[in-house]
Amino acid sequence: MGNDVRKHSLNARRILRSILLLATLFCSSSLSFENAYASVYSSPLFQPYATIATPPVILNSGTGGSSTIYTNGTSAKVSVSAPVTQGWIANFQYRKKITFNNSAISENLANFPVPIILSSSNADFWGHVQTNGNDTRFVDADNTTELYYEFEKFNHTSDDMIAWVKVPQIDASSTTDYIWIYYGNSTVNFDSYSSNSNNVWDSNYIAVWHLKENPTGTAPQFKDSKGSNAGTANNMVVGDQQSCKIDGGLNFNGANAKVSTNTGASVKGLTRYTVSAWVNTGTLNSATREIYEESIGTSALSRVKFGLSSSNRFQLAGRALDTGSLTTWVSPTTTLYTSTWYYVVGVFDSVSDVHHFMINGVDTTSTVTASTISNTNPYDTPTIGARPGASEFWSGKIDEVRISKTARSTNWNKACFQYEVDQSKFTYGTEEARAYDPVLNVVNQATGAWNVSMKAYSNSNIARLSNAILSLHDAATSSDQIVVSSGSVTQSQGTLFNLPGGSGSTVYISMSNLLANATGSSYLYVHLKILTPNTTTYLLYVITFEIT
Amino acid sequence: MNLKKISSKKSITLLTLILASILISTASAAVYYSMIAQPAVTITAAPIVFAQGNDWPSDSTLGSNGTWVSLALKAYPNATLAYDQPLNVSNTDSSSHTFRLRHVSITPASGNSQVSNFTSINFVVENTAGTAQASFNYTTGGTTTWTTPSTTSYLTLPAGTQWIIYVSTVATAGANSGITANIQISVDVE
């Protein structure tokens, strides 16, 4: 019986196993059926395919900073420097330091006019200054005090600039005193420091004539930089305006040519005066010839007689009173030569009674008792190149005539000579830049046009950057794309900028307003977006900007 | 008492009852499923279809009824090419449906040297507000091996709603022009 029960139990288990198997099969068939139900909705098939193509736009290195263009021209790294200073005057992109060599002058020169001459050898300056020079600024070493200046010449075609700059002080014997020239600002015009030549020349100057103008122009042709004593040409022709010591000057024919000035240039009533000029002795024939003369009285007696004596010597002569004989205050015995430039200075001093005549910085003195100049007006207008009464005509060239109502010091006059004759007295530093333009060129390789823009997607250590602007531009327009201000990105992306269709069409990436408050390296990680116009399909090129 | 006989009878009866029950329930179920399955096959159109996006790439093909699409993409060396709105996925039904993306195949297959010309081919499903609902990324890491995406979870596309499939491609810096990667992705719809 025991076996029967065991067998029976075994059968029951087999039957139950069969039942479970059937149930499982049933359930499986049910699941399969449910899946069949779900697949009633067909599965849409998505078949994208991506083909590698040649980039339609490439990056090329620009002329500013240094750049690395990576394979295929679709990414780049740009490295530039930001000046580390807080003193940079706002919105000017470039500057140069101008250092004076005053080692030969044992006197502080206060409010001293220096000629800053930038020729074509300063290509960086000419490459960045505006075409009319209206963005030129001179600033003292403190990077704050703007200095008065006067252009004697600014020619962006021939790349020639002569600017007279009033320097507050050049220390005695210094070789390190300096000023700055700033330039590169397309949004400014001449300001009060660059449009008032009167302020360039200190208050002791009565008259300053550069004599650079066309003598046949509308009278009075010759500007007085002090403003009151413009000169009028007499018996001069166009050809009498010639290249002289500092830009243009006048060539006098020795027969009848002269320049009449204005009675305001008179030395009347003065105890001291100084008259100076650059002259070229065209003829030395023992004739008295005048560089500058002022006369008094109906007899046209000479009050100031500054020129050549009949003994072929320079002289400063004249009379303090309205009557009496002509007195030679001082006449150096220096032998003169024709067709030679001399920087001549006559100093009348009735206080010390020591009078000076300096030729090319070499001083000759003479002690002659003199009185204060009478206070009567000149009989004729003071004249350059002749006696006012039309005699003693100068033969040769005259440039840069100045009258001062003081006795300029020997050091002052020597410094004038040195700075005007010797450009080695100036050291022009390398250009410092807040701008690099362009750092990259974005060049179209396709026929279609594009819209491009930039977006900063990351950065590193920009807290040290006071300012930075990344822009896109072409020849006509510019668009600021990314702006850094006070250590943070204040504008992370720009508006779309047109890259015209056609292979070779180019827009430029520039950097400007760079300024840091500490040394270091900062990085801006930027996407250059290249958008097919009127679509949302675009390329992203990665550009790393390193600012040290 | 003959225990053996008694047990056999009960077993047979029990087995008969069970089999009868199974047959009845199976027959009932079959009838039930056939009743609900029949209309799905004969009446319901595909509720989720593809449609051209605002920036439908040229050379792309959209199949009839929007049930398949061949999307022609480009890739540029060392640059990201982004298609913000190349393709839409639409629920044309009056009820919401769920769908998912499932990788089927990609050629050239891993191991082919051409694979290393690609860096990534990424797909992102974005809802109407532009919020990413799922990412579906193929990457190589510059090697000859594709890392294919996992099947996404089911996404609920509301009735009458159209979403966008954003695409971006990146080729390696030294990629050679003309190489093509073909992908098949199944959109499973529930």
Describe the structure.
The complex is a heterodimer of chains A (548) and B (190). Helix content of chain A is 10%, strand content 44%. Chain A is elongated, with a radius of gyration of 41 Å. The model of chain A is unreliable at 1-7 and 20-39 (pLDDT under 50). Chain A is mainly beta. In chain A, strands 12, 14, 15, 17, 22, 23, 24 and 26 form an 8-stranded antiparallel sheet that branches. A 7-stranded antiparallel sheet of chain A has the order 13-16-25-18-19-20-21, with no helix packed on it. Chain A has 4 domains: 1-49; 57-86 and 434-547, Sandwich (Immunoglobulin-like), CATH 2.60.40; 92-204 and 424-433, no CATH class; 205-407, Jelly Rolls (Sandwich). With 190 residues, chain B is α+β, with helices and mostly antiparallel strands. Chain B has 2 domains: 1-44; 48-189, Jelly Rolls, CATH 2.60.120. Helix content of chain B is 21%, strand content 41%. Chain B contains 1 helix and 10 strands. Chain B has one helix at 3-42, and strands at 48-52, 61-62, 68-75, 80-91, 97-107, 118-126, 132-139, 155-157, 162-171, 180-189. In chain B, the strands form 3 sheets. Chain B has a 5-stranded antiparallel sheet with strand order 1-4-9-6-7, with no helix packed on it. Chain B has a 3-stranded antiparallel sheet with strand order 8-5-10, with no helix packed on it. In chain B, β6 and β7 form a beta hairpin. The longest helix of chain B has 40 residues, at 3-42. Classes of the chains: A mainly beta (548), B alpha+beta (190). Chains A and B meet through α1, β1 and β37 of A and α1, β1, β3, β4 and β5 of B.
Outline:
The complex is a heterodimer of chains A (548) and B (190). Chain A is mostly beta strands.
